[in-house]
Amino acid sequence: MTDAKAAFTLDDSFTSADATALVERLRATFRTGRTKPLAWRRQQLTRLRDLLTDNRAAIADALHADLRKNRAEADAMEIDLTIVEIDDYLEHLEEWTAPQPAPVTVPGLPGSTARTQFDPLGVALVISAWNYPVNLLLVPVAGALAAGNAVVIKPAEYAAHTSALLAELLPAYLDTDATAVVEGGAPETGVLLEQRFDHIFYTGNGTVGRIVMTAAAKNLTPVVLELGGKSPVFVDRDADIATVAQRLAGTKFANAGQTCVAPDYVLTDPDTAAELQAALAVAIKALFGDDSQTSDAYGRIINERHFDRLSALLGSGRTVTGGQTDRADTYIAPTVLADVRPDEPVMQEEIFGPILPILTVADLDEAIAFINDRDKPLALYAFTENDTTKRRLAAETSSGGLNFGLPMRHLAVPTLPFGGVGESGMGNYHGRYSIETFSHRKAVLDVPLS
Ligand code: NAD
Predict the structure, then answer these.
(1) Which keywords fit this entry according to its UniProt record (predicted)?
(2) pLDDT given at position 11
């Protein structure tokens, strides 16, 4: 291990010279070949796993301080989901990184062999968002390490306690010649983005996504952009409404609605809308009791800026459940809005908070047209028993993921790629898709000399 700084915290000034030296140092390590052997990758992944298991309580405390995240959610969504990914890499590393033979079927190449080979890209930069500040940081970091890269790790500054904790822990567990942590916000990230990386993996909003991609373009650096958007939910009249309400409330209001794949709004027919409103009130009460502000299970808005943004959206439609706010506590009650019109403020931007508008449509045709008239969402959800409806939604709409029956769960299935399309992002990761994202798939052809 070198003596060079492995973590820049908010107490440090982080200059262009620091960034250059840091990236050069990691690139020098990469060039020695140290990160390529599967043994090194395994060791780093195991260390990352140890970090999570050794510090479970401290991580949960930091998440609670940042987001009032409850312990069960911190364990399940942040820590265990990340461990599932790491274990998947550990189990499948040989298989997923093995060269793949390719048949040589073209004429004129007798005796030739061909393969594709996964080459690590070099030095990756991972920039994370604050809403799941452990998972959204460490899952891509694990993918980059599993693929044999060096990594610069930029935690999300709004989740300040978690960022500080990870900046302390990561250098204590990982190889500091091949990884480094830089804490900070736009200025520090801007300084990092002046550097040439071999891959940039960004999670956050589309405005910054454009800044990242513009910076990457100068060096022809490939990017993955994990962005957001308004993920719609179609509720068919044949669906069991009590089940729909339970599953909608359980996913929409987790983390106080601050989830990139949270159901954003509901499209359904007028009769089902009325039934659903009543059922949602019951489901919310079952989750958080009579007063969600006193419930341990309910989170808080990350900061006052987001609280103010969300409060301004509460004027849309008619509030049928919730609506209470407390700025000093950055608390917004789980809220359901009915009779919402498409031109109202709550429908103009991704909500990213605990407000669920219900809009009515006449039928599936109108729902599909509504979805297709807007940006391609990160996820599309539908509650229906009807196979034709499922087939039509799959064939006639475009979204990062499509999920029937239980919102958000597709991201916890590591055999599925996770990512957006259009305004919701580009590229994907999880499981073997992370290895592909952080590798170059090199074509190798071997033609005999005689
Ligand atoms: P954020 O404010 O934490 O920003 C994300 C990252 O961008 C941070 O690390 C931050 O330091 C950096 N950043 C901010 N301004 C910058 C600038 N000017 N230049 C360079 N870097 C800058 O998070 P956010 O954007 O508020 O996150 C919310 C959005 O992210 C939502 O749209 C949500 O849907 C999306 N999101 C997507 C996913 C996904 O996996 N697809 C996951 C979580 C969040």
Answers:
(1) Oxidoreductase
(2) 85
Our mutation pick for probing the ligand 1 site, out of 208, 230, 255, 349, counting the most ligand atoms within 8 A of Cβ, is: 208
Q: Please tell me the distance from the alpha carbon of residue 41 to that of residue 32, in angstroms, as a whole number.
A: 15
Query: Does residue 314 or residue 10 have the better pLDDT?
Result: 314
148: exposed, middle or buried (C-beta count within 10 Å: 0-12, 13-18, 19+)? Answer: buried
The whole-angstrom separation of Cα 261 and Cα 255 is 12
Residue 314 tokens, joined: 């509460």
What residue owns the CA closest to ligand 1's atom 16?
Answer: 186
ipTM for the assembly: 0.95
Work out the pLDDT band at 1, boundaries 50, 70, 90. very low
- Please indicate whether residue 226 is annotated as part of the active site: yes
CB-side exposure of 435: number of CA atoms within 13 Å?
26
Nearest CA to ligand 1 atom 27: 204
- For ligand 1, the distance from its centroid to the CA atom of residue 268, given in whole angstroms, is 31
pLDDT class of 334 with cuts at 50, 70, 90: very high
| List 73, 78, 157, 226, catalytic entry | 226
The SS3 of residue 443 is strand
In this predicted structure, the answer to whether residue 415 has a pLDDT above a threshold of 50 is yes
Q: What is the pLDDT of residue 441?
A: 97
CA of 204 to the centre of ligand 1 (A): 2
Q: Which of 169, 182, 180, 171 is nearest to 144 (CA)?
A: 180
Tell me the best of 205, 212, 231 to mutate to test the pocket of ligand 1, counting ligand atoms within 8 Å of each CB and taking the most. 205
Taking a C-beta distance cutoff of 8 angstroms, is the pair 79, 54 a contact?
no
Helix ranges restricted to H, 103-239: 135-146, 160-173, 186-193, 206-218
